[in-house]
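Our collaborator T.R. sent over the components below with a one-line note: 'Predict the complex.' Nothing else. No constraints on interfaces, no templates requested, no preferences about which chain binds where. So this is a plain run: every listed entity goes in together, and whatever single assembly comes back becomes the starting point for the next discussion.
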Amino acid sequence: MKNIWKKDKGFVIFVALAFAFPFIFSLLGQTSLTEGTNKFWQGQLINFFIMAVFAMSYDLLIGYAGMLSFGHAASFGGGAYTVALLLEHVAPDILKSYQIFIGSTNITEIVILIVCFLAAILVSILIGLLFSASAMRVKGAYFAMLTLALATALNLLARATDFVEWTGADEGMHGVPVPLWINPTQNRLTFYFIALAFLVLAYILMKRIVSSPTGRVIQATRENEDRARMIGYNPVTYRTLAFVIASVFAGLAGGFYALWTTSASPSMTSGVTTVNVLIMTILGGMGTLVGPLLGAGIMQIFSQFLYTWFGARWPLVFGIIFVLIVMFLPYGIVGTWRLQGFKIKQGWQRLLELTKTKETPEK
Amino acid sequence: MKHENKKILYIVIAILVIFGVLYGLYSYAGQEAFIRTTLSGLTLGSLFFLVAAGLTLIFGLMDVLNFAHGSMFMLGAYAGWQFYTNPTFIFGVLPLVLAFVAGIMVIPLIKPELVRLKLSDSWQKRLPKLLYLAGLIVGVLAVLKFDIAGLAETAMVAIVTTSTGALAELSPQEPLLRFMWRPVLLFISGALVAAGVSKPGDRAEITAPEPLKNRLVLPIILLVLTILFTFVRESASELVLLMNGNLRFALAVIVATLFGFLLGALIEITMIRPLYIRPFFIVLMTLGLSFVLRELVQVLWDPLAYQMVRPPLFAQPGRASTIAEWLANGSSTISIAGVTFPTYRLFVILLGVVMFIFVTLLMTKSRLGMIIRAGVQDPQMVEALGINVKRVFTIVFALGVALAALGGIGAAPFLPVQPMMGDQYQMQGFITVVIGGMGSYVGAFAGAMILGMARAFGDYFALKLQLSPTIAEASTVIIMIIVLLLRPQGLFGKKD
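Returned assembly:
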């Protein structure tokens, strides 16, 4: 714990604030914990937490492994569809026949939910492997196009009318029966803390992965593939690993997103979702884990305010900001801060020295 | 086996496979369905080619994956549709665009002096950004309070031209006295942006020495055009609307293509050129750009789908039995070997084939094509030989965008004109490029035709076997994966 505090003061403070947020809000606004504006802002934050994990997983791909994949929505949507399909079509049958209670908690529901997420992990691993198997042989632009095409194929599958009884085709699934104790409409506060815990766990795990020897090798293959191979690491293996890990986190985020919206729709697997998460990552700064978190937060807030200011066409403003950031702040907010922070500190020191030298002649 | 023999063997096998597949489809579907499906496939293939040709050239030469290509396709359709139904918007905005481009084109005149400026290192870094920002600010000032939404709305007022030439009322343009300063400011803005991009004070920059006369031609032409179009904003649109429908359509095609060319050049110079040092960000840039353009179109014309009226040559109901009869009557369908087929789609096929021939001639016979082919092989070497590679980059990018815009206006009369219309074609364009091999226009043509056929026959089988049309869309992805597994560099691509 001490280590985390030392390295990630910002994150710890953020988590503490997020944890305390509903209580502080209800104290300040004299509103109840589970209703009104408090509930609304909890919803906003839940969305932010989930998208932050999604954005961080994307950053594992493009920032750390240097693979510009345009198919990340496939993992996200895959996870969402897995959870939603299981909850909609499998869970009710099981719940009809078995119900095990311990005290007043329904064990079956919890087990089913865990199984759902395990299945989501499995599906996202499979998606990751499928993508890697077909796309890992090519690089750069080919890779980007191939992943995009594969994700499109998955999007087509989600929209196919052949499976309309299962997936709802273009409409998607809505009103998925989420267990009551975690249902975001009835028990939003519980869901809030679970989503927060998910974010914290995902962050710590990803941080661990990134700074582990394996993570270092992944970054090395980004910097110079040939050298990594020379040292004796097989870049393909490590890039596949990075792809699968990112896919798993995206799948989990997708699963949570399905729970949160109680739906799964084809738009979750579409290119727009990938572009959104790409914007978050670039906005915050590639190659850092805090960056995508910040980017997701900014996007969440912006989409709220820009919507009220500019109406339905707010993405125009957002797009212009994105283009400007790509042109003038290519490393994103966090990246630029880390690059320029040193200079700012230097500037401070120089300023301090200047005041000192002014004082010395008077002696 | 010798290399040559191997090549011949592959070609023979490919021809046999193609004929085998076609014969199999022919005997399965029967003559009528086969011909109809093939023609639809060729129509789609032509459009795919127009999108993919630009993509593959741009990628082959400068390693830029243009994610805004679908938006260019869409913008081409919008520009042509605007010109055809009501050119008020186009003529209202044209002087502004021309002024901006003229401003950009002035900078190469003084570039040698700019590059030789004596600047300290920190100013060398700072000045381009400052100039660029100043240019943007002046640009925004120039279009402040410009009623662009009002201009855009004019197209939504459907205008009926009868044989007597009765027109719906033309919307008035902004009075000249107020409008005048906008082009002037945009000219300054363009010059500032271009000055920022041209790296003042950077002596490592190569400037090709060219006689002053040659350098003066382009800016002067643009300036004259700007002034001209500033004065004829209202009368020109009236003139266009009084024209014969077919002529108007032909002009619309040319206008859309030229618009694409201008837009491509603008984008390359102002937005992509500063990013060549960070290729990763070019992709992001074009992605953001496509996002912005799509939203911009929705701001101007609302998120609606419009149907462009077909030009008179393709509009009269009735079936022509020969091409001469079609040309005389302007029938909407024509009978080909007993199959009724829309004449307009025939025109699209023709467009695709003509453009393929044009690109082939350009690449093999002209000096520019020679430079492009050499540039695909080794851009550094070409630059070392004293060729202004930057200008070639701009031309190729503009050419690619122009082709996409041409595809857009070609598609407009039979596809709904809407903001998302380019996305699907961009996706298919990518797949085409991957199948055909990056940088090969022949590959783009072959890939486009294969994909078009796959889509058409996929739709046919889906209908016949009562599957969902998803099969047709998915078939292209499957073909791509098969090609990539057998030949990772694409059908006509060269090995790295």
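Summary for T.R.: Confidence is low (pLDDT under 50) at residues 158-168 of chain B.
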